[in-house]
Amino acid sequence: PYVEQWTDHRFSNEVDVPLLGPIPMLVFVLAPFCFLVVFGWLVTKSWILNNILAISLIVFFLTSIRLSSLMVASALLILAFFYDIFWVFLSSAFFGKNVMVTVATGLDVPIKILVPLVLSSGAAGEMQFTLIGLGDIVLPGLLLCFALRFDAAKGADQTRSYFACCMAGYCVGLTICEIVVGSFHLAQPAMIYLVPGTLVPFAVLASMRGELQEAWDGLKSDTHAPIPDV
Description:
Blueprint: H1 2-6, E1 14-17, E2 21-24, H2 25-44, H3 47-64, H4 70-95, H5 99-106, E3 112-121, E4 127-133, H6 135-154, H7 162-184, H8 191-208, H9 212-217
Antiparallel strand pairs: 1-2, 3-4
Helix pairs in contact: 2-3, 4-6, 4-8, 6-7, 6-8, 7-8
C-alpha cells in the first residue's frame, strides 16, 4: 500500500494474465527489483539484503493483518510471552539444547534483523551482529497498529497518543533486552520485555482515560478503514 501511495496509484491498473488472473501493473514494475534483491541475497548472504527482505516481510504482515481489539492483542501477546520463555529457558530441558537460539543463529534465512556491532569483531576480524527476530517486531507491531487506528478513531494528539505511549514502551523494553544480552551474554526472550513494555502502557493509559472497555471491545467499523499516517 505504501508503494502505491508513493507512486500516486499510477500503476494500479490490472493486467489479465492467463492462469493467474488480474494482476496490478505495480507487480510487474517491482518484480525485477525484488528478484535482484533475492538473488543477491542468495549469492552473497549480505546482511543488508537480509534486512531488506526481513523489513519487507514485516511491512507485509503489518499492512495485511489487523487486530480487532485490545482483547485479541492481549491474548496474542501473552501467549507469545510464555511461548518465548519456554523455547529460550525451558526447551533445553526437553530437547537437550536451546531450540530458539539454535534456530535464530543457525537458520540462515531472512527471519531476523541483523544489526552490526561496531565496537566488536570476531577472532578473524569478521563482523559481529546482534539480532532481533521478526516475531519480536511483528507481534508488538500489531498492537501498535491497533493503537494507531484507535488514536485516529478518538482524534488523539499524536504526542499524547496510545501509539506514542506504546512505541516508547517498545523502545525501552528493547533497550533493556539489548543491555541484558550485551552485559551478561545470555540469550533473552525479547517478549518478556516487549509485551509488558507495550501492553501495560496501553492498558494504563486507556484506564486513565476511561477508554479501557472500548479498546477491549475493539473498533466496530475498523475492518476496511485506511491506514492512518504516522
